[in-house]
Specification:
alpha+beta; four-stranded antiparallel beta sheet
């Protein structure tokens, strides 16, 4: 049977190999329930949650950064999650991918908004993640500094 142009079946991967890095299964609804529990104190104590949202620092106290053709950029990574400071408060995010699946969960803590995206394709520049996030960030309540 011929494949559709641009798509091929993902390689079969034993879920014993990726373990927790890709052997978790969820739904968009489950991810949104998780985001509400996490950001409303049902998972971590306030102190632990604040620590989780604090971006990592180098030994000298400076924020880690990387440089590309557009200049220097801070690395917004905390304890296992990405954290970006916005005018409305921290934006917490985590994404993942394994052969045939790509996911993203972003929590805008200020306006109490969460976006969960699950796509049944491998990572690709054609996925909607950036477009969706840019549309949301266009809202003055969540726009990035």
């Amino acid at each position: 049977m011929a494949e559709k142009p641009g798509y091929v079946n993902a390689h079969t991967v034993s879920l014993n190999i990726p373990f927790a890095a890709g052997a978790m299964r969820s739904t968009v609804v489950d991810l949104l329930i998780w985001s509400q529990a996490l950001s409303h104190g049902q998972v971590l104590k306030d102190d632990s949650y604040r620590q989780m949202l604090t971006a990592a620092r180098l030994n000298d106290g400076a924020r880690a950064s990387y440089t590309d053709e557009n200049g220097d950029h801070p690395i917004d990574y905390a304890l296992g999650i990405g954290v970006t400071e916005t005018l409305a408060g921290p934006v917490v995010s985590h994404d993942g991918a394994i052969d045939g699946f790509t996911s993203s969960l972003t929590i805008f803590t200020g306006p109490d908004l969460a976006v969960a995206i699950l796509v049944n394709t491998s990572p690709s520049a054609h996925l909607p993640f950036d477009d969706v996030m840019e549309a949301i960030r266009g809202d003055p309540a969540v726009s990035v500094r």
